[in-house]
Amino acid sequence: MIARGVDLWKAVISFTENNPGIVDEKHRLRRTDKATFENLLAILTPLAKTTAKFSFKVRPMIGEVVGMFERLDTIFSNIETDPRRPAAWREAAERGRKVVSKYYGLSEQTEVYSLAVLLHPNYRMDFLEAMKWQEDWKETAVDILRSNYEAFYKVVPLESQDDQDTPDNGKEDAEEDPVIAAMMKRSIARRAEAKAVDPIEEWLADVTPLSKKKETVDPLAWWWKGKQRGNERMGLADMALDVFSCPATSVDVERLFSRAGRNVTPLRHSMRALKLAKAVAVGQWFLDDWVPSDLLTNLLQRERDLKEAVRNEKKRKRRLMADKARKKQKTALAEDEEK
Fold this sequence. Notes:
It comes from Tilletia walkeri. This protein is mainly alpha-helical. Helix content is 67%, strand content 0%.
């Protein structure tokens, strides 16, 4: 709304000046107020874009929001150090930067953020350099990446069989084929070079360029396509897929916790955990449109049909019993007449 007002600033001012009776004098905009709204936009627009980035999906992934704190910090820092802006707006930018830094500092409590930065195809070590991370921060991030990789994802290449494992053809004294010897020598050299390759160092030393639209790639899709092509990077691809499958926030868990808490009212505090879990699960099914809209109608109709079937069965049994009683009575009368 503010951006639209700035775009139509001349029309808004012209309307208020030509219609003084509509807006009171003390509430009327002045032509000099445009700079105030432009400064306000400079601070609010980055926050609005970041909020939209976090909430444009039901479940945003970590790869879709990585780098947001750094962008906000850079934007607010530029506003704070801009001498052309009024002091009030520089102070506002400084305050906003402090708030961003507060929550950015909390990202150090989880390893997934550092992993996401280093495993993002467009970021890697270049991102840390551009953001001027301190050397100990860089070393910590790389150590986190390496320790998790070696503990859970590292793939050791299979060694080829040794010479003593080759079958004995009874030609121990035969002369060695020079061609085979040369091939084996090259094979041994290649294996030695392959052992020296560090997938993490190789990954961090490179970077994937931005798209033609100057946009970053979708890291989850990028790694998945690479794995489908057989580029496992000695287990690094599996690690990246696990990292970028993590949700960016705990909103889903918090919402579920709050929703479950609302079910435990003072009159229902003795509800068992299993029953509460079922109630919350069914409620979530309705919210996600997993339950057909006519399910309740069909269930009620089925119950009515079942009750009707039971009543009809009882009527049928009563008729059978009545028919048997009449037949028995007729038989008894016939026997009495014969006597």
